[in-house]
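Each record in this resource describes a single protein on a pair of labelled lines. With that in mind, the following record should read easily:

===
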Amino acid sequence: MLTALQKKTAQAIVNIFETGKPLGDYARVTVLAGDTGGLSFGRSQVTLASGNLHKLIGAYCRAESAQFTKSLRPYLERLQQRDPALNSNRTLRQILKDSGADPVMCQTQDVFFDRVYWTPAEKTAAAMAITEPLGVAVVYDSKIHGSWTRIANRVSARLGSPASAGERQWVEAYIRERRNWLANHSNTLLHKTVYRMDTFLQLIQENRWALALPLVVRGIQIEQEMLMPKENSTLATSQPKGGKKGQPKTGKNSPPKHGKNSPLKHGKKDQSKHGKKGQSKHGKSN
C-alpha cells in the first residue's frame, strides 16, 4: 500500500504527461488530429470516444453547487452517444474550459479519476505483486493511456509473472516492451508518447523505485510542499514574544494563502499543447 505522498507523486508524474503540470490542469481541453479518443478534458484528459467524458460530466452535473450544470446538461445525451461532431463544437469546448475553474469540477475530477483509474490500477498492481511505488505508477500510467493488459500479457508470456520473474525485472521489461510498441504503432501520433516510458526508465536508472522527493520529470521538479502544502493552523503552545501564553502567533507562521501551487487555481490561460517541454499530449492508445 502506497503512502498518501507516494500516491500523489505517482499521480503528479502522470499529470505532467497529460497536461504538463504536477497538480494537473482541470481546465485543459484538447482535440488532436489523429487521436482516436477525440475530445479530451481535464486533469487526466478523459476522452469522448471512451465514454468517460460523459460519465465525468454527468457526475459533475449531479454535484451540489456545480456552476455550469445548466450549460453542460444539454450535451449529456450527445456525450453518451459519443457524437463525433462534438469534437469540433467550440461552444462545448469553451464551457468545459470555463468549468475547470469551478472548485466543484476540480473535486469531481479528483474523485472520478481515483475511482476510474487509480483504484483499478492499485488493485491490478496488488494482484500481480507489483508493490513498489514506481511500479504502481507505471500501471496507473498505462491504465490512463491505454492498452495495459495487451502489453502486460506479452511480458508475462515471455518472463512469467512479476512474482516469478522478480518485480523490478518485470516492470522494466514491461516499460521497454511498451516503449517499443508505442514507437512502432500504426497510429503515428503514439510515436510521440515514448517519452512516458523514457521517463520511467530514467527513474529506474536513478533508483527512484520509492518515488522519494524531490524528483524531476520532463524538466519539472516535483516537491513534497507542492503536493501536500503544510497547514499551520495550530495555536502556539509557548509564550510568544510580546504576547501572553496561549495566544496564537501571527505573521510568518500564519496559515499560508493559496498561491501558485494551489490545486484549485486556474487563472492562467492554457499553454500550447505543443509548447514547453512536458506540456504535450499526443493521444491515447488503443
About this structure: The two ends are 29 Å apart (CA to CA). Confidence is low (pLDDT under 50) at residues 232-282. Strands lie at 29-30, 40-41, 46-47, 215-217, 220-222.
